[in-house]
Amino acid sequence: MPVHFTVQIDCEATQHSIRDAALGERAIRGLGEVFAQQGLRASFMVIPSDMRAHARIYRELESQGHEIGLHAHPADEGYQEFLGVYGFDDQMKIVGEGMDVFAQAMGRRPRAFTPGYGSANDHTFPALERLGLRHGLVSVPTRNLPQCACVWGNSPLDAHYPHRFNRCLAGDVDFVDVPATLDTESRLWGGAHPQDLRIELVDAKNHWYTIHKNVKRLLAAGDKIPVKYIKAVTHNTFDYSDPANFRRETLLGVIAAARDIFAAEGAEFMPATTGDIADEYRRLVPLPSGGVTLALDTRGRARSQR
Ligand SMILES: [Zn+2]
């Protein structure tokens, strides 16, 4: 059974808390090298100030088959840091301005988008749809960080069209959300954050268990999960050009673990970008019309109460 493997890199080496464009450049060049050696394709999601600094390299990476999309840390563009505190019009303005910078640098409009911190609210998906964005990584299932305007409850673990009025549900918004792979049962940060396949979060040994658990979950689901994928994430704030760098070692460990686990479980390893995964989802799952209906689960009611 085919299972996609992808990596998303949020590119923000120039943001105010890091301010190291040279490190960002070493990181994306090093990652490009690793992906070329490994035969992988990745999605680089770039904040406007990184795009201004490294446009030429992103055009090269795109010509090598990688996807380039837009990332947002609004504080670097004169707004509050968390997108999820804003209403529909302000989100359109903040993301739209980033899209303009992207278009100037890349010569085309972005199709992919990721907000910083997974910060979003119920206005976010309809705003992204209105702006013409097609897919991305927005939700972080079970992350509970109100202080970052990032609260997701038990939102879907796999690719889906989001709900128009409730970000935690699947629905009919014409935007494919492709969350990262994570383990909702392994909790970090005092329980607020699920252990996800973020390269810098833990070592390759810990990531092995997250990959294994998710490959088993995907294969057991059969047709219920139409597009199956394992998605790792990282940032361009580590020196991936240095072969002795621990994050680079961890990334290589995660790729090796995924290949081994896929082979052992009978999954076909299919390198992809987030855009490829979203396109496949669109091919297989028509956009529902008219929203979704929720039915109350009454199975637990005592017979006498019926
Ligand atoms: Zn970020």
How does this structure look, described?
This protein is an alpha/beta fold. It has one domain (2-305): Alpha-Beta Barrel (TIM Barrel). It has seven helices and twelve strands. The protein has helices at residues 21-38, 48-63, 88-106, 124-130, 204-221, 246-265, 274-284, and strands at residues 2-11, 42-46, 67-72, 112-115, 135-136, 144-145, 150-151, 176-177, 182-188, 193-196, 229-235, 268-271. Strands 1, 2, 3, 4, 5, 8, 11 and 12 form an eight-stranded parallel sheet that branches. It has a two-stranded antiparallel ribbon with strand order 6-7. A two-stranded antiparallel sheet has the order 9-10. α2 links the parallel β2 (42-46) and β3 (67-72). The protein starts with a strand and ends in a 22-residue tail after the last helix. The mean pLDDT is 97. The chain binds zinc ion. Residues 10, 12, 71, 73, 116 line the site of zinc ion.
The small-molecule ligands in this entry are: zinc ion
The general outline is globular
What is the radius of gyration computed over CA atoms, rounded to a whole number of angstroms? 19 Å
Please write the CATH class name: Alpha Beta
Based on the structure given, which CATH architecture is correct? Alpha-Beta Barrel
What is the strand and helix layout of this fold?
Blueprint: E1 2-11, H1 21-38, E2 42-46, H2 48-63, E3 67-72, H3 88-106, E4 112-115, H4 124-130, E5 135-136, E6 144-145, E7 150-151, E8 176-177, E9 182-188, E10 193-196, H5 204-221, E11 229-235, H6 246-265, E12 268-271, H7 274-284
Parallel strand pairs: 1-2, 1-11, 1-12, 2-3, 3-4, 4-5, 5-8
Antiparallel strand pairs: 6-7, 9-10
Bound molecules: zinc ion.
Residues 10, 12, 71, 73, 116 line the site of zinc ion (ZN).
